[in-house]
Specification:
- By secondary structure, the protein is an alpha+beta fold.
- It folds into two domains: 1-86, Winged helix-like DNA-binding domain superfamily/Winged helix DNA-binding domain (Arc Repressor Mutant, subunit A), CATH 1.10.10; 87-152, 2-Layer Sandwich (Dna Ligase, domain 1), CATH 3.30.1490.
- Helices cover 47% and strands 12% of the residues.
- The chain contains six helices and five strands; from the N terminus they run ααααββββαβα.
- The chain has helices at residues 4-13, 20-31, 38-48, 54-66, 115-118, 134-159, and strands at 71-73, 81-83, 90-94, 100-103, 128-131.
- Strands 4-3-5 form a three-stranded mixed sheet, with no helix packed on it.
- α1 crosses α2 (20-31) and α2 (20-31) packs across α3.
- It binds zinc ion (ZN) (2 copies).
- One zinc ion is lined by residues 94, 96-97, 99, 132-133, 135-136.
Length: 163
């Protein structure tokens, strides 16, 4: 993740003007959580600059993607997410809360069987894992412990009429 100043410098090098709108997007990206959708970024930007349209936010995000400073992700969560973690990693999407967690992993061991026969070549591969994030995992294990004792008396109550 780069600082707003570093992103501004990249824009200048690409002969793009560093407008207040662009700077506001850079600042939101630098402070926000990992994988926001454009709507989330827009909501934070208008807190600083109320007149910035969602369309402008999309445009700045596209420019950042083209400069290689952002990665657009489709994780099957219904909206494109923008990732400013540029180190190699994959993603886990939480089944409980939808959180996206960065998983550092290298897919060097993947065997592309049959790819040569298809006449294609593979340059990159992205892995999207499903599971539970750390907070949901912690909450889930405590819930499981607390529901077990209460479910047993229910079974005994059902059995009571026969006894
Ligand atoms: Zn979760
Ligand atoms: Zn990520």
């Amino acid at each position: 993740m780069r600082s707003p100043e570093a992103l501004a410098q990249r824009f200048r090098e690409a002969n793009l003007k560093v407008t207040p709108q662009r700077m506001a997007v850079f600042e939101v990206l630098g402070t926000g959580p990992g994988h926001p959708a454009a709507e989330q970024i827009h909501r934070s930007v208008v807190e600083k600059l109320p007149n910035v349209s969602l369309r402008t936010v999309y445009q700045v995000l596209r420019e950042l993607s083209e400069l290689g400073e952002l990665v657009m992700l489709d994780l099957g969560t219904g909206a494109v997410r923008y990732d400013h973690n540029l180190t190699q990693h994959h993603h886990l999407v939480c089944d409980e809360c939808g959180a996206v967690v960065d998983i550092p992993a290298h897919l060097t061991e993947v065997q592309y069987a049959g790819v040569a026969d298809l006449g294609v070549s593979v340059s990159t591969a992205e892995l999207v894992m499903r599971g539970t994030c750390s907070p949901c995992h912690a909450a889930g294990s405590t819930t499981a412990e607390s529901t077990k004792p209460s479910s047993q008396p229910t079974m005994q109550q059902l059995g009571d009429p026969h006894a």
